[in-house]
């Protein structure tokens, strides 16, 4: 079996929230040694905020900072080192780590790394071939918005995705959760793979300056060109398509169950008439071609809804796909765990925790691709806060024990966060009542075979 | 010194859609030599709108203009024996093939990964499809809305009072493309690291699903299923109308709730009913009403400047025209001017991210159909002028 693509590569992951922490988790899947670095008084936001996701059995436990679902997903397979970067001793240890690493990732606002003298020109002095990846809202380089604080939610408006997303005739909408973070996640992987190859060929490192705003805008390329070329400013068309009809998301049997389908050709329209049991419509001039179907889309929606509302969403997918019509059920966060296609691809992976973590086994998504020659998997659970402090500082950096004890004493490094309170939990039933959750299934462990 | 970070990498781009074209373009943007191979009638992308000045001419598709930037282009007809033989010759001279055919199609032509790897053992082939190469649904047809439905994102998008809402545009296609480029770069480095050739099987549905971390983990952690936003009482942190547009405000960053209240110029929001996340969830409808009323008197760019000063997480909803004129993007040289043989000089979105040593370089406009046929088949593969004409007459190119 060949080694994994990133084996032998050491990555310092000094990043917070979603975007680059996820890059680090994926790099660990690829075989890299990834060391997550946090401040003792500056634990990752996913350990204790609204971004933490869920807690095992909705229970904060004794060490809530090690238990949140998003933290555990993002930091799988990593080591954890805590260093107080606001203290010169912490920064010195960071520099020592850089000396023995290949890649550094950070997502502070541009002024922070500069102030710590840990920006790219300074890191190069320590390790000339270092590869640095920075991810910020608006990018480095002194543009007018460079120092604006930013997060996916507010960036979604800035980079235009909200403008083009929304129900027909309604205002702009958000979609998904922190969507643009993931564009940076993947951009960083692309930058790191390319830069490592270049380094192995030329011996030279470099700095990738990623701006989430810019990545988001890139995904608007077609709308931007329509604006530049035709003066058109984008519009919201709900679930419809500029040149397919009918297309939509229709109610299925059950509570909050839905099927999406899309008809692109006249042949598919004829097939849909058969599926709907409405062969009479196949010859109807109101729906004969795309242009007429676009014009009479509201009527088509009613016809489809009348058929779909009492049918099972998966049955409808199989029936529609069986006659060559693109269709699929709206899958919830629960549904994917039982979907045969995700299962067959091994998209969701089970991670077993050591007894003392009190997390049992949990299921996390892996990667959206498979490699034929080097099968990938999640290589281990996320570490506890500062779990590798002593080993990394003493064994890797050669710091003597008495000096290490001093660092612990002065909280330059720590195994319990010095700040951050977990968000209080609203009881599950109340979350459903408030509409903060769609449903709650107390039998999930049995259903997933986790107990 | 090669010009780009991927200098020296040679790529064949067989894709006809957004995902594969975007994947190969990113490789080209950062230095790879990419050859776009299209059927003699042109790839499907050329028939997709929008078109330059609304002229539906195959050289004026704006998707084609943008997504085939920096590539060279030739035609090839894989439905012919000769076309397939040409591809086999070309494959021996490249490092990467990007393709987005329906799973099994290339195999049926004798051009699947195993066959091509026999000709080129270190080949990386990047296949991007909606459902992936194998599995019970791999033969099903994908569409943007289907990937959004099955990738979970629609289950939490839109309002609880209405049907799940699709993201505007072709986001899942771009997602598939970016993941294709990222995984290709990882495998290209892996080759330096002893991994050998690889077939990369990207599933677009899984790319969409990969953005759903809180949604996916909620079930195995506590049995919950995430929902769409509430029909009312949840405007805060979503786009809210102001006097001249829409804005989004978020707690966090360096700002306090008091800072946000100051931005809205509405002291009533300091009331204990709105003092924390739980209270704001319980009293959402009331809070929305006060906020929307306050915002109706304020302008988006004034708010943007004030919010930046107060370190408030703030965004306004920009339109495509506004983005096209954005000073921040200008400072980062995001847009570049390209001189296209049919369209002429035009500004295009270009730079995904900035590299210090090997910066983005605009090298070619998108090729016209078959523009580099002679260079590829005569100069490259060594066909005579006479045979080159025969290839055309055989409808092989």
Notable features of this structure?
heterodimer, A: 451 residues, alpha/beta, Rossmann fold, formyl-coa transferase, domain 3, 2 domains, 6-stranded parallel beta sheet, 3-stranded antiparallel beta sheet, 13% strand, globular, B: 397 residues, 17 helices, 13 strands, elongated
Write a structural description:
The complex is a heterodimer of chains A (about 450) and B (about 400). Chain A is of the alpha/beta class and about 450 residues long. Chain A has two domains: about 300 residues, Crotonobetainyl-coa:carnitine coa-transferase, domain 1 (Rossmann fold), CATH 3.40.50; about 90 residues, formyl-coa transferase, domain 3 (2-Layer Sandwich), CATH 3.30.1540.10. Helices cover about 35% and strands about 15% of the residues of chain A. Chain A is built from 18 helices and 13 strands. Chain A has a six-stranded parallel sheet with strand order 3-2-1-4-5-6. In chain A, helix 1 crosses helix 7. The mean pLDDT of chain A is about 95. The mean pLDDT of chain B is about 95. Chain B is elongated. In chain B, about 35% of the residues lie in helices and about 15% in strands. Chain B is an alpha/beta fold and about 400 residues long. In chain B, the strands form three sheets. In chain B, strands 3-2-1-4-5-6 form a six-stranded parallel sheet, sandwiched between helices. Chain B has a three-stranded antiparallel sheet with strand order 8-9-10, with helices on one face. In chain B, a hairpin with a 3-residue loop joins strand 11 and strand 12. Chain B is built from 17 helices and 13 strands. Chain B folds into two domains: about 270 residues, 3-Layer(aba) Sandwich (Rossmann fold); about 80 residues, formyl-coa transferase, domain 3. The chains are: A alpha/beta (about 450), B alpha/beta (about 400). The interface between A and B is large, with 185 and 163 residues.
